Amino acid sequence: MNGIKDRLNRPLQDLRISVTDKCNFRCQYCMPADIFGPDFKFLPKTEILSFEEIERLASAFSKLGVTKLRITGGEPLLRKDVASLIGRLKKIPGIKDIGLTTNGVLLPKLAKDLVDAGLHRVNVSLDAIDDDIFKKINGRGVGSDVVLKGIEAALDAGLGVKVNMVVQKGVNESEVIPMARHFKNMGVTLRYIEFMDVGNSNGWDFSKVVTKKEMFAMLSDHFELEPVDPNYFGEVAKRYKHKHTETEVGFITSVSESFCSSCTRARISADGKFYTCLFASKGYDLRELVRTYKEEEPLINEISSIWNQRRDRYSDERTEESAKAKEKIEMSYIGG
Ligand code: SAM
Ligand code: SF4
Ligand code: SF4
């Protein structure tokens, strides 16, 4: 086993698997409704990887060192019978942790099945407690109570829960404190995500980013936070906890403090393309390979060769110009 891992010159620890590019929300920073409208062409079913194909790819990745999987989308809970995929992935030797990122709407219906299948944790996205702000952001008029019920359902089912909040200037920075208060009271980790220039449709520019430094300053007026050491190499969140509690607050600082040099994450889109960076323009087709070969070796060879050629450091080098000029894949397609 180690022999296979030795083929890589940079560590590869986690894999994000998108299982659909569709979503029941139209978050303005991810799938703006004017672009992702009724005429938008989502992937046809024939192009989407089957659960068996996903399982075979995840198995090949596990031989190269991947121990953590995250299921994402679009909205992954819209993929029919996604719990059975979790069950398959759970059985792959070497996979120690399976998480899923969701908007939470379908958790009351599915949380128990997901846990029974072997899911360990969910990250639930919620950008505001205030209904008017949240309804506007998600583009579908869904109130925060719907997502809060999903979070409750996940906790009741025994899942680990973190809440993700994308913060945009002039949109929801007024919610930084109310969200912190709410999730501190619940004992749930809240992670603030800097608004990123993923894709080419969300109108991003630097002026719309609220940096970790700015958020931390706001929080410091209301809470006492103390730093927490990283759990492992390549941990993405900068973590703190509320003093005298075990409740954490984290920041994903991919704009203001990039972390490309320790990036150990690979991504597969729902149609089987392998991306070595969230801001990539080009993916490598693994679907053709997985549909052609029954053996694992060709998959392992291709994945290791692509990973070894990887030179990605987009966030380290980001400028206002590069963010606008470069053709990039959309967040709803690759899953974050
Ligand atoms: N639909 C699921 C959800 O919203 O959790 C999973 C897919 S979504 C693309 C994954 C994560 O990406 C979510 O936490 C979402 O808030 C985040 N995200 C989407 N667009 C973003 C952007 N432009 N900047 C920062 N985070 C973004
Ligand atoms: Fe859908 Fe998630 Fe994107 Fe919102 S962030 S539009 S819930 S995929
Ligand atoms: Fe990894 Fe690309 Fe993000 Fe850098 S910009 S941390 S290489 S995904």
Automatic annotation (TrEMBL):
Swiss-Prot/TrEMBL cofactor(s): [4Fe-4S] cluster
Ranges where the record places region Disordered: 316-336
Gene3D superfamilies for this protein: Aldolase class I (3.20.20.70)
Keywords assigned by UniProt, alphabetized: 4Fe-4S, GTP-binding, Iron, Iron-sulfur, Lyase, Metal-binding, Molybdenum cofactor biosynthesis, Nucleotide-binding, S-adenosyl-L-methionine
Keyword Metal-binding: yes
Domain named Radical SAM core: residues: 7-229
Protein family (similarity comment): Belongs to the radical SAM superfamily. MoaA family.
Complex and partners: Monomer and homodimer.
The protein's name: GTP 3',8-cyclase
